[in-house]
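hey team, just a heads up i'm posting the complex here instead of the shared drive bc the drive is being weird again. everything in one block, sequence lines first with there labels, then the predicted structure for the whole assembly after. its two chains so it's a bit long, scroll down
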Amino acid sequence: MNKKIKVNVVKNVLQANDLVAGRNRQVFKENKVFALNLISSPGSGKTTLLEKTIPALKPEHKSIVIVGDLQTTRDADRLSDQAQQAVQINTGMSCHLYANQIAQSLSDIDLKGADFVFIENVGNMVCPGEFDLGENAKVILLSVPEGDDKVAKYPTIFRVADLILLTKVDLLGALDFDLKRVKEDLSKLNAKATLIELSSKTGQGMDQWLDWLKAKRTEGIGRQARFATE
Amino acid sequence: MNKKIKVNVVKNVLQANDLVAGRNRQVFKENKVFALNLISSPGSGKTTLLEKTIPALKPEHKSIVIVGDLQTTRDADRLSDQAQQAVQINTGMSCHLYANQIAQSLSDIDLKGADFVFIENVGNMVCPGEFDLGENAKVILLSVPEGDDKVAKYPTIFRVADLILLTKVDLLGALDFDLKRVKEDLSKLNAKATLIELSSKTGQGMDQWLDWLKAKRTEGIGRQARFATE
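-- predicted structure starts here --
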């Protein structure tokens, strides 16, 4: 009985969230920015990746960062030098961002001149997958030290991914990790998502990731422009 | 507004959960078993630790395992040979176990002759800390590859810990990890929790962990016996 109440409530919260997410998507579209929702376990390297990505996109592309965290402003602090603007959302007890927290942040952000909005979600492999923030793409990071069974064990999140970044691949030799297993599990769940093997430490895969970002942005903006004239 | 609704609901769910958790605690007490709630990020080594711990406690101590997972039965499969009984709870879309799921499992478990109940929670550093399952102790695993900023970033979970296991310490040399920072952050949040540096791979820290388990169980059972005569 208790469980049933929970399910109903979650459904209401999700519906309300989707409504706000749709409005966020409209704001991104009007401003011709490409918004990404970065999701992973704690410590898989989201912030480090952005520390490398945002400068590498310059000067051609400007980026805005919205970071969700339980309490600290550490990640936003780390990114504020490189980003055009870095906004911190403290979620308190919540293990994921809500669309309305992004909506509130957007009212403080000047999107003019920006090309990318990177939303770094709270470190969690489950709930962030259920809460649409209005992003144009969901990027899931899986780090090698987490183990090769994670795709099968956390399928909900990998099912909705547009891109999977396998991070810390510089540790592939040092750890027992079956890359083939990951690829097989992924092909069953989500055949259309791209997998990029990446190391923020050695730089492996960075070019592929940057190319993906630019291509998807162009594609997304193109689609938005088409929508606008329909 | 949306956010406020969520908060009220969560409070109701938590209150209902605490009620059931209290009943679980009573069941553990009546059966003189020591129950532990193991919490961590995905891939920090909960199952591997239990694969080593349960045989090491034999033949003196028998263990039961309850594993929470979104979908698969992989972890319970891995543990079913060694444990007296291994129960899998599939949580579906939920990122943590509820007390009523444990209560349901307990109706299928024969606790007679058991000394420890290890509850392996869903891989998540946030929500499992809020949902009491009726356990006697909360054990938080933090693995070295997750990084040395995790105590400060996920304080809610470390604040309620009885024991923190720093796992995969065999990687301390290979990765940039400031152990002193972890200890300092912990001392500010939770001075009474014990920290054990552990490697399931090399065996480092295993004796200390086994001693802690046995001592806490003896202490817990003693306290339970006192409670029973009060």
